[in-house]
Amino acid sequence: MTSISKPRIPLATLPANEIGLTVRDYEGAMSTLCAGCGHDSVTAALVRSLFELSIPPHRIVKMSGIGCSSKTPTYFASGAHGFNSVHGRMAPIAAGANAANRSSIHIGISGDGDSLSIGAGHLVHAIRRNVRMLYVIENNGVYGLTKGQFSASADVGSTAKHGEANEVAPIDPVQLALSLGATFVARGFSGDKAQLVPILKAALEHRGFALVDVISPCVQFNNHVGSTKSYHYVRDHELKEIEQDFVPPMRETAARLPHGGTIVVTLPDGGRIRFGTLPEEYDPRDRGAALHYAAQAQQRGEIPTGVLFVDEGTRDIHELNSTPDEPLISLPFEALCPGADALARFQDGFQ
Amino acid sequence: MEPTDASNPQFYHRIVECQWACPAHTDVPEYIRLIAQGEYAQAYMLNRKTNVFPGILGRTCDRPCEPACRRTRVDGKSVAICRLKRVAADAKGAIASMLPSIPKEKNGKRIACVGAGPASLALANDLMPLGYEVTIFEAGAMPGGLMRSNIPAFRLPVEVLDDEIASIVDMGVDVRYASPIESLRSLLGEGFDAIFIGSGAPKGKDMELEGRSGDAATNIHIGIEWLQSVAFGHVTGIGGRVLVIGVGNTAMDCCRTALRIGGADVKVMARRPRRFFKASEWELEDAEEEGVEIVVNHAPSRFVTEGGKLVGVDFDILEWDEGARVSTKVGSAHFPCDDVILAVGQENAFSWVERDLGVDFDEWGMLIADPVTHQTTLPGVFVGGDAAWGPKNIVTAVAHAHAAAISINNFCEGVPVEERPEDGMTLSSQKMGLTQWSYYNDYNSSPRQAMEHVALAQRLSDLGLEVEVGFDSDQAAREVQRCLNCDVEPIFKANLCIECDACIDICPVQCLTIVQNEDDEGVLRSKLNAPTRNPNEPLYVSGPLPQTGQVMVQDEDLCVHCGLCAERCPTGAWNMEKFELNLAYLAMSKSRRKS
Ligand SMILES: Cc1cc2nc3c(=O)[nH]c(=O)nc-3n(C[C@H](O)[C@H](O)[C@H](O)COP(=O)(O)OP(=O)(O)OC[C@H]3O[C@@H](n4cnc5c(N)ncnc54)[C@H](O)[C@@H]3O)c2cc1C
Ligand SMILES: Cc1ncc(C[n+]2csc(CCOP(=O)(O)OP(=O)(O)O)c2C)c(N)n1
Ligand code: SF4
Ligand code: SF4
Ligand code: SF4
Ligand SMILES: [Mg+2]
Fold first, then answer.
1. I need a surface site. Which of A99, A182, A299, B550 has the fewest CB within 10 A?
2. Closest CA to B168 of B113, B100, B106
């Protein structure tokens, strides 16, 4: 933990976004994570994404489970709503929150332990339901908070800090999500914000469940030689063939993509993802191909990053369930709770 | 861009902008920290080491450090560096035992100084500890030069002056009062090993206008002569209506003095618009607060007399172009008055220097001297202070003395005067624990503390009453925390960086960026996280980082030295280290004292 909080310096250099806030207005409490933890960089990328999208902090609901990664919500958007649940239970909390208030922006932050072990059952159902949310897995291959045991994402052969190698097959969140019908699947790296920020922005605008698996090294327990989730290893094995940029609605000129996009996917609000350099014949709209590509890359020991799959056509949780257009809070009491007579009539319908 | 070479002391010296701007290179942040710790005597001695007169300068310095202070970039107001110097001086207690010791056994070299102003006194202060015998010849009856004769006691109390001058004279300096040097030739004949000319610019400029001569002249005074007469008690009153011509710092002292000895309606008459005034803003404020009226765009054309008596001055009213270089007369005005004080500048007077000695003068009658060595065209004769390149200020006179001391020491030891010892530096880690520093690293948002002044009626009735009260302990405690510790530098070791971005994310001013290097500085600047505010501030650019070959860039212009980058860095690639400038003349005194 730092000796002081990050001071507010009244320098005139910080630009304001469309709603008059500076990037510092999207920060949270001081991080108590280890110095150099990848999770803090993910936090910084979230701060920047929310700032750049000019999202009012009070419209955000941030949720998490348990783990170092799950402490992230404390460190951004202190003006947002938040819920720090128990280990592995972020997904159902998020589904509930989203069902109740579809006008909020739901952000779930989890770890590889939180999501792929104890919370795996919840994750898969949130994907199936296409809960409209940004679901970030800060993936470091270990249980950081409990001192570095292998997690379910640890690669076979990757060694722990004291030398022993993992022998159990890993779960790749990207392949898992693709196989379950996720409508937005991406992978980023905490050490590359230039790529991570556009990924997060696109995911935040996606109409449905957006899974972003972020390789986020644990400097304390998993950043040594032999680990496949260290800063160095990821930089050596990262495949940035799939480069994309997110172009928000009406802001096309802000795009930073150097190569003219070869494929453009338009998001419901008018924002667009433009894909640049792609492996030949890769189509980020073809689930089967994406799955095949991810599996092959894994076999080769490569880590493809970028937005790997987008599907804007599938119905989200609200469309599937024909929920009202407004958040439940705005419904009159009688509509929400129509009383015993209405219940009786409803039940009669099943007879 | 090429990786920055930070091994040259000048790189970090430049970053400590207050110290860089100070002609004597006073270690400002360190003395401010000492004050914060309550170590007033040490803070005083650290000042004394470089600027020699902390009590005097803590009240009167021209403060070139303050406009340079980085705090200005953050909240618009510099740290009150000068006032804090006074805090150290006022609270220093007994420091006699900390003064440099003077060897009983002399080195056999005798140095003569002309004039006992700050330049000569500071020179004696540098040379006495080395065993030199210094003799100062002073025309007047007391030491201090213009500090005593012209700076009024309401700005600089006599006790402060006496105390600091005594600490030098008591080193055993042989001061000969009432001993004007009337011939350099005969002084050269007295067998001194070197001569230092510290005679100042003692002549006030006159104004040859219609009505200047004749009986009216008794009511037309030359500013610096008049101030001297007041200081030494020869003049004790002035007419009710006073016009001060000129608007430099001398004019400010004249008008404020006039108010205290009988002036009721005192006007300062300026040729140019206000933004072209020479006087410091704070002196103008003080004068106006006391009731002086400042009239702009008026140039005197005639002293008006009636029956041989001065009754007023006629002025041309001027209009100026943008840069106030070309004026046109647009009218005229008459201002009645009883007395006029001319404060339009000072001149040097070298009538006592024979022109056939090998000491050369330029076309304006100024001594020709080397700006680094201070040696005139006659080897062994040196010059400093106002005598060197015209009227400046006290701290400049002190800086000249330090430079001349190096030359004189070289000269006496047979070393070429051009062989200057080099400044050195030390960098010392401030790390005390994982996230603990030996300096107070938090940013403090206190506003600049306002100086309290003695009530108007009281100060105008007492010529010797110091106007500024000085900071009380609460104010001092708040003001010291405004310092950004610009001498505690984030120091980077590229080979340790793993590019985790922790420092980038934590920096409160976004002055760090990891980026692909560029040949062109402008292109590199355009890629930084925070836009460049000051393109003249050099960037720090590291060598290539091990994992990606990108570089770490720091825009020092924005840094507030909070140390958070170093606290968040997992590998110790960043560390906070205190820069200390080891000035050449201080090294000189150490090495000589040992031998
Ligand atoms: C009104 C006024 C106000 C000022 N206020 C400030 C201020 O607030 N802050 C600041 O930093 N500076 C101020 N200055 C400027 C400052 O006082 C001078 O820059 C400084 O004193 C110069 O020091 P010096 O040693 O070169 O010369 P001086 O201080 O001029 O000393 C020269 C000495 O040499 C003596 N002398 C001259 N000729 C001979 C000779 N032939 N033989 C023997 N002795 C001789 C003189 O009697 C005098 O004592 C002010 C100046 C004036 C006129
Ligand atoms: C029900 C329950 N079981 C076990 C734990 C202990 N526990 C805390 S965090 C954690 C794993 C965290 O790993 P991950 O989600 O990857 O987060 P990281 O710390 O690596 O970011 C475990 C097992 C717990 N808090 N609650
Ligand atoms: S233990 Fe690992 S995951 Fe947890 S804060 Fe430290 S570096 Fe980050
Ligand atoms: S000390 Fe480090 S973190 Fe603090 S302002 Fe300077 S560069 Fe930024
Ligand atoms: S915190 Fe240290 S290791 Fe991380 S990027 Fe900054 S300098 Fe490099
Ligand atoms: Mg983990």
1. A299
2. B100
**Is residue B516 predicted with pLDDT exceeding 50?**
yes
- Write down which residue in B344, B370, B405 finishes a domain: B344
**CB of A2 less than 8 A from some CB of B:** yes
Q: What local confidence, expressed as pLDDT, does residue B584 receive? A: 77
Position of tokens 């050195």? B424
| Domain extent for B302 | 204-344
Q: How many CA atoms lie within 13 A of B175 on its CB side?
A: 24
B95 touches chain A (CB under 8 A): no
Cα separation of A189 and A230, whole Å? 11
Per DSSP bridges, beta strands A149-150 and A142-143 are antiparallel
Cβ pairs A/B, distance under 8 A: 99
Q: Is B185 helix (H, G, I), strand (E, B) or coil?
A: helix
State whether B221 and B330 are in the same domain: yes
The answer to whether residues B225 and B334 belong to one domain is: yes
Asked if the C-beta of A340 comes within 8 angstroms of chain B's C-beta atoms, the answer is no
CB contact under 8 A, B441 and A36: no
A98 in Cβ contact with A106 (< 8 Å): yes
Residues in B closer than 8 angstroms to A193, CB to CB, are: 501
- Give Cα separations from B404 to B400, B407, B410, B411 (angstroms): 6, 5, 10, 10
Q: Name which residue sits closest to atom 7 of ligand 2, judged by CA.
A: A146
What is the DSSP-derived secondary structure letter of residue B576?
A: E
Check whether residue B114 and residue B213 sit in a common domain: no
- Residue A4 has its nearest CB partner, among B441, B505, B530, at B441
Alpha helices in B470-554 (DSSP H): 473-480, 502-506, 521-526
- Nearest-atom index, ligand 3, CA of A36: 7
Give the number of C-alpha atoms closer than 13 A to the C-alpha of residue B157, restricted to the C-beta side: 15
Distance CA B167, CA B125 (A): 9
Place of tokens 């196989």: A179
The ligand 5 atom nearest the CA atom of B545? 8
Closest chain A residue to the Cα of B499, Cα to Cα: A191
CATH number of the domain where residue B231 is located = 3.50.50.60
Partners of A3 on chain B (C-beta within 8 Å) are 435-437, 441-442, 563, 567
pLDDT at A300: 85
Distance from CA of B579 to the nearest CA of A (A): 22
Q: What is the pLDDT of residues B45-60, one digit of tens each?
A: 999 999 999 999 999 9
The number of distinct structural domains making up chain B is: 2
CA dist B165 and B398 (Å) reads 13
User: What is the pTM (predicted TM-score) of this model?
Assistant: 0.89
Question: Is B166 within a domain?
Answer: yes
Q: Give the residue carrying structure tokens 């968040």.
A: B568
Mean pLDDT of chain B: 94
Q: From A4, A6, A72, select the one nearest A37 (Cα to Cα).
A: A72
- Residue B23's region, left for phi above 0, alpha for psi from -120 to 50, else beta, is alpha
Quick one: which of B576, B541, B544, B539 has its CA closest to B558? Answer: B539
pLDDT above 80 (res A241): no
Q: What is the ipTM of this complex?
A: 0.88
| Chain B interface disruption, residue of A1, A5, A6, A76, most B CBs within 10 A | A6
Q: pLDDT, tens digit, for every residue of B108-146?
A: 999 999 999 999 999 999 999 999 999 999 999 999 999
Identify whether the C-beta of residue A122 lies closer than 8 Å to the C-beta of residue A89: yes
B26/chain A closest Cα distance in angstroms: 27
Question: What residues of B are in contact with residue A28 (Cβ under 8 Å)?
Answer: none
Helix axes B158-169, B118-127, angle to 10 degrees: 40
User: What's the CA gap between B565 and B560, in Å, rounded?
Assistant: 11
- Considering the domain architecture, whether residues B328 and B208 belong to the same structural domain is answered as yes
User: Domains in chain A and their CATH numbers?
Assistant: 23-249+279-348 (3.40.50.970)
